[in-house]
Amino acid sequence: MSDERKSFRFMMLSGGYSTDLRGKQSVRTTFKLSPKCIDAMSLLAGQLGIKQKSLFDHLMDDTQALKAIAEESPEEQTRRSERVAKTYVISRRTLEVLEHFSRKFETPRDILVEFSIERIMPLVEEERKKHEQRKKLLERIDDLHRSSRKLLAEADQTLDSDDPVLERLFHIHRSVDQGCQEIDSIIAKGRKLEEFSG
Question: What ranges do the domains of the chain cover?
Answer without folding.
Answer: 3-119, 128-195
